Amino acid sequence: MALKFKFIAEPRTVAIVSCPFRGGQTRLGVDQGPIHFIEAGLIGQLEELGWKVKFEGHLQFGEIDASTDPPIGVLKNPRLVSHSTEAVAKAVGKHAAQGELPLSLGGDHSLVSWHVYGVPKPQACPFRLSSLMEGVRGVM
Hints:
There is one protein chain. The protein has four helices and four strands. The radius of gyration is 16 Å and the shape is elongated. It has a four-stranded parallel sheet, with helices on both faces. About 30% of the residues lie in helices and about 15% in strands. The model is unreliable at about 130-140 (pLDDT under 50). It starts with 12 loop residues before the first strand and ends in a 10-residue tail after the last strand. It has one domain (about 15-60, about 70-130): Ureohydrolase domain (Arginase, Chain A, 3-Layer(aba) Sandwich), CATH 3.40.800.
């Protein structure tokens, strides 16, 4: 017997919000994580679990330009991060409003809270997969 979900419409759909973004920190490569999740077969794996999958491509973010977006204290690229987090919140909110389960694939952690912010309450049950492997040694 399939599980019934209060806020997820039938057919059960997971909407992937791919966020290849590194604007909030200086580590190179975290923006590639979401791309690698898709290339590694995430969509097929979700379908094998009985979910319909909606993937509309990777969100596009602006270019990092420190000359026009100087740090504010410890915040890096604050204007770019602000615009990017708003885009993530809107994308997540759109899918949640349609009764889909938002699954965001990150990028850097500056987007995390906005992923949750985009979900209407009380439906706040989004999922996020992070591409950061901070503190992990010898994994690959």
